[in-house]
Write a structure and sequence with these properties.
Blueprint lengths: L1 E3 L5 H14 L10 H9 L6 E6 L6 E12 L4 E11 L8 H16 L4 E3 L6 H9 L15 H9 L10
Parallel strand pairs: 4-5
Antiparallel strand pairs: 1-2, 2-3, 3-4
Pfam family, one: Acetyltransf_1
Protein name: GNAT family N-acetyltransferase
Organism: Streptomyces werraensis
Length: about 170
């Protein structure tokens, strides 16, 4: 079963984020706390939405998908960015990942989102094969860019701030 996450799911979502980070060989980078997730996902201004997959037999939460809207200047429409998709290893192959992605695609359709996008690590061949089997196109000509830490601070220090942009 796929359903919208509730605030009561935060401990399981947090645990799965940690599991995903370990799988992606980046456990030290997953620093979000349960309190941060609770505020970001269920606070006054939610930053993202989450679906969870439950095992039909046990009712256990076995996967999640965290997404948020984005906007394309080219199409003039909103789209969806999938930040994380994770299904616990012991339940993979039972259709939970496909069900999560199908529900996200239905949300896109229902909201008029023309694009549904996410990133995948180039070494994650099982995930790439899975996504391609669903018809996903891998955009090899695009490269993700990221600023963090000192580089982000150095660039921010160069900003010509005004009262209007400093909010």
């Amino acid at each position: 079963m796929i359903r919208a996450a509730t605030v009561h799911d935060v401990p399981e979502i947090h645990a799965m984020i940690r599991e995903l980070a370990a799988y992606e060989k980046a456990a030290e980078q997953a620093r979000a706390t349960e309190d941060q997730l609770r505020a970001a996902l269920f606070g006054e201004h939610p930053a993202a939405s989450v679906l969870v997959a439950e095992d039909d037999a046990t009712g256990d939460v076995v996967g999640f998908a965290l997404w948020f809207p984005r906007f394309s200047t080219w199409t003039g429409t909103r789209g969806m960015h999938l930040e994380d998709l994770y299904v616990r290893p012991r339940t993979r192959g039972a259709g939970h990942g496909k069900a999560l992605l199908a529900e996200l695609a239905a949300i896109c359709r229902d909201h008029g989102f023309e694009r549904f996008e996410w990133v995948v690590l180039d070494w994650n061949e099982p995930a790439i094969a899975f996504y391609e089997s669903l018809g996903a196109e891998l955009l090899k000509e695009w490269t993700v860019c990221r600023l963090t830490g000192g580089a982000l601070e150095r660039l921010a220090a160069r900003a010509p701030r005004s009262a209007e942009t400093a909010r």
